[in-house]
Amino acid sequence: MTVVTTEKIKNPRGRPKTINYDATLNIAMEAYWANGIDGMSVNEICRLANVSKPSLYREFGNEDELLSLVFKNYSLGLHASLTNLFEKNENFKDTINELVEFSGSVTKGCLAAKAFQAFSRLGEKGKKELNTLKQGTLRLFQDFVANSRQEISLGKNWDNFMIAEYIFSIFINAMGMSERGMCPNKIKRTMSLALSPLVND
């Protein structure tokens, strides 16, 4: 028997989810990370994630907002890895050696470094989140240097911020070398040489 009703069936509140938010964000991050900002388009991300462009924009806004979320997502992983690395060892020399190993293993390079190369193309939200990422990363290096200052073989002419920036620049350069396909052992030797003035024998 069929029951006929004139009562209108209400739709559930809110917009129905048409895409997997976390999966799409991770696909976008991996795509920008592997190809750079200029080497990736929203259309290509939609193809990789198997979602429509309207669905992507409905979920993330525009490309500027998507990129700002990508940078935030990337910073969570990078900062967690660095925090674990800096807290893992009890002395500066062992931590530096582990940083060298870590830098040589990141074959896609640094997403933040790639994004700064395309900084003028970013929107306001992307620029703001990218600068937040950089400052947060530098703070981790500064904290590491401050906690290890007595083990660092540099005089008072070098303050903690200068040392942190020096290590950070070598770290970024090493990941760039890895991205360009340089031999991991050569990267490690180059990075170890660049960091050797900081380490007491």
Overview of the molecule:
It contains nine helices and no strands. It has a domain at 64-198: Tetracycline Repressor, domain 2. It has helices at 21-35, 42-49, 53-60, 63-88, 92-105, 111-117, 124-148, 160-179, 184-195. The chain starts with 20 loop residues before the first helix and ends in a 6-residue tail after the last helix. The longest helix has 26 residues, at 63-88. Mean pLDDT is 87; it is low at 1-16. With 201 residues, the chain is an all-alpha fold. The chain is elongated and about 60 Å long.
Whole-number mean pLDDT:
87
The CATH superfamily of the domain at 64-198 turns out to be Tetracycline Repressor, domain 2
CATH topology of the domain at 64-198: Tetracycline Repressor, domain 2
Strand content: under 5%
Task: Just name the CATH architecture of the domain at 64-198.
Answer: Orthogonal Bundle
Instruction: Please provide the ordered H/E string of secondary-structure elements.
Output: HHHHHHHHH
Rg over alpha carbons: 22 Å
The secondary structure category is mainly alpha
Q: What's the CATH first level of the domain at 64-198?
A: Mainly Alpha
Helix content: 55-70%
The coarse overall form would be elongated
Element layout with pairings:
Blueprint: H1 21-35, H2 42-49, H3 53-60, H4 63-88, H5 92-105, H6 111-117, H7 124-148, H8 160-179, H9 184-195
Q: What can be said about this structure in brief?
A:
This protein has 201 residues and is mainly α.
Task: Spell out the key features of this protein.
single chain, 201 residues, mainly alpha, Tetracycline Repressor, domain 2, 9 helices, elongated, disordered N terminus
